[in-house]
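Ligand-bound model needed. nicotinamide-adenine-dinucleotide.
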Amino acid sequence: MPDRYLSWTASGPGGFVASRLGLPRPEPLIRRRPGRPDISGPVLVGDGTGETGTGESDTGTGRLAKPVRELLDSWGVTVPDAADSPAALVFDATGITNSAQLSALHAFFRSRIRSLAPCGRVVVLGTPPELAGDAREAAAQRALEGFVRSVGKELRRGATAHLLLVAPGAENTVAGTLRFVLSARSAYVSGQVLRIAPVAGGQGDEALDWGAPLAGLVALVTGAARGIGATVAETLAQDGATVVCLDVPAQSAELRAVADRIGGATLELDLTAVDAPARVAAHLRKHHGGVDVVVHNAGITRDKTLGRMEAAQWDAVVAVNLTAVERLTEALLESPSAAQSPVLREDGRIVCTSSISGIAGNVGQTNYAASKAGLIGLVQSLADDPGLSNRRITINAIAPGFIETLMTAAVPLFIREAGRRLNSLKQGGQPVDVAEAVAFFAAPASAGVNGQVLRVCGQALLGA
Ligand code: NAD
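Prediction:
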């Protein structure tokens, strides 16, 4: 269902009327396009040094401004001292150790924020508060989160804000995350906090291939016949992966069409069947020698308020959205014998599809929200499991907000309009926005990103 309001306000007369009436004016977002650079420049990078001019609130030297400037330089992005319309403002706040020094943050952004280009980026780099040296530093670092979430809500014209919390020792593994948040791939992600941990025995950022990050890897995408799953399959294939597209036999024709388009393979089965996990594992081992990326995307809704919800509606949703994910993950991680390694290979990636409903709750969705919140529990528990971490496997979740799909096209007009506008970007997301976030987690460059939930929701007010 096209967003006619967005098209109208993007036109000259529509934009004029909307601004005179004080109506929201969603910016057409700049998304990834072949031939267009991933990151448009210039990017201004600051660390607060000399920013306030007061001496006493000057920050110490941050850990990240220098490596970030070097990274941007290696990507061919210009990093001048000043620019009229910067594509991004990046502030290294890792040198901030007390609340007085937060004024450097204010000083850096206050003088530059209004010059940010349309669809520009604000990126603040900090230290995870729990790793701070003392309580004052922890408070100052936690303050960054409130700052970034508020900036995201103030920004106009499609611009977004992010906080990257980089653990000491992880300075050489920030490239993947920094590139994602600065690039057109994160167009519909804003107000998010991403943590980056050091990677033991992993490759450094130098060895990364940005053109085809998933080249040589095999990815499984469940629920790939249509909607978000079909776009995830396409995006992973564009990034170089061989994709196994899985869906129920009733979706056979659609599934084959997706697989044919991307040169992928199909696997038709119902994930809730008792033998489904074993069949998927056997198929991946036999035809692909294993799997590197698993995207649990298949999901269903059976909405009813609790007093009217039948047991079958509860059971169906939990069975597809949560139990099937648990069972398949277990099957792909277990070693069938001492001689055989698990189907999910070392350096593997698991991505679960949660929902902002699972974070904020939603009327009529007790079953769905419980299943989607359960996925977050699964992700957070398995992220610390030695069975995964010893083999450098990561597991993360995405939590989409209002995404323009057949599912949301069926929502009544008034609720649909509210879903579209009640976020900082004043529009719904596209399936490709979710797919880009999945591709980010799936990439080798995301080795230090584990156990996280990334909302792809334009910074929805729900559960913010
Ligand atoms: P969709 O209904 O268009 O597609 C889901 C696919 O999963 C379908 O092809 C379906 O056949 C498949 N599937 C369902 N049950 C299955 C089973 N038992 N075995 C195998 N395949 C099965 O949905 P969508 O809108 O593309 O959503 C994809 C995922 O994103 C879901 O997990 C959904 O909960 C989540 N999500 C969507 C939105 C949104 O706005 N569309 C928001 C938040 C989260």
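The CA atoms of residues 262 and 428 lie 26 Å apart.
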